[in-house]
């Protein structure tokens, strides 16, 4: 048997099979992108995702340095590890991008989101919705005889859980800001 033939029961392949093993596992990553605050930057970042068929789960953007004219874009996306690496590399090639951090792999981070939920209901359903709102530390920011609006902040999972409990109680509308995230500790991403 030659050295290039595969041995029976062996897990190794031919020396000519140089293709690395790629993972098909989808992972969710939170990326913090520091960009120059100028017209068209957000469109170029979004264009990178849409042009290559990458999905954006959440997107937030705001100016973080008025004098330096810098904005921070926080993107939550899903893909295989290889796709995530491609996204980071391609983001880094955009001229107006100053820095790209993958908060998911760089260590511990804090993620928060704000949501407003409109709930319609009377009687027991209204009382139950208000009780659950209190447990979740949601604030009532608007109230009428037939509905009210909750404001809640927290991790995306907390908002999902609150919305799931409100659906049978009369949830009619929800607005979410998307994830804002920062690294914990001294090695935090700039911006």
UniProtKB/TrEMBL annotation:
Domain of life according to the entry: Bacteria
UniProt keyword list: Amino-acid biosynthesis, Branched-chain amino acid biosynthesis, Transferase
Domain named ACT: residues: 30-105
Catalytic reaction equation(s): 2 pyruvate + H(+) = (2S)-2-acetolactate + CO2
Protein EC: 2.2.1.6
UniProt signal peptide: none
CDD domains named in the record: ACT_AHAS
Statement: the UniProt record of this protein carries the keyword Nucleus: no
The keyword Transferase is annotated on this UniProt entry: yes
SUPFAM superfamilies: ACT-like (SSF55021)
Database matches in Pfam families: ACT_AHAS_ss, ALS_ss_C
Pathways per UniProt: Amino-acid biosynthesis; L-valine biosynthesis; L-valine from pyruvate: step 1/4; Amino-acid biosynthesis; L-isoleucine biosynthesis; L-isoleucine from 2-oxobutanoate: step 1/4
GO molecular function terms listed in the Swiss-Prot or TrEMBL record: acetolactate synthase activity; acetolactate synthase regulator activity
Enzyme class: transferase
One Gene Ontology cellular component: cytosol
GO biological process: isoleucine biosynthetic process; L-valine biosynthetic process
PROSITE patterns registered for this protein in UniProt: ACT (PS51671)
Family to which this protein belongs: Belongs to the acetolactate synthase small subunit family.
Oligomeric form and interacting partners: Dimer of large and small chains.
PANTHER family hit by this protein: ACETOLACTATE SYNTHASE SMALL SUBUNIT, ACETOLACTATE SYNTHASE SMALL SUBUNIT 1, CHLOROPLASTIC
Functional note: Catalyzes the conversion of 2 pyruvate molecules into acetolactate in the first common step of the biosynthetic pathway of the branched-amino acids such as leucine, isoleucine, and valine.
Protein name: Acetolactate synthase small subunit
Organism: Marinibacterium profundimaris
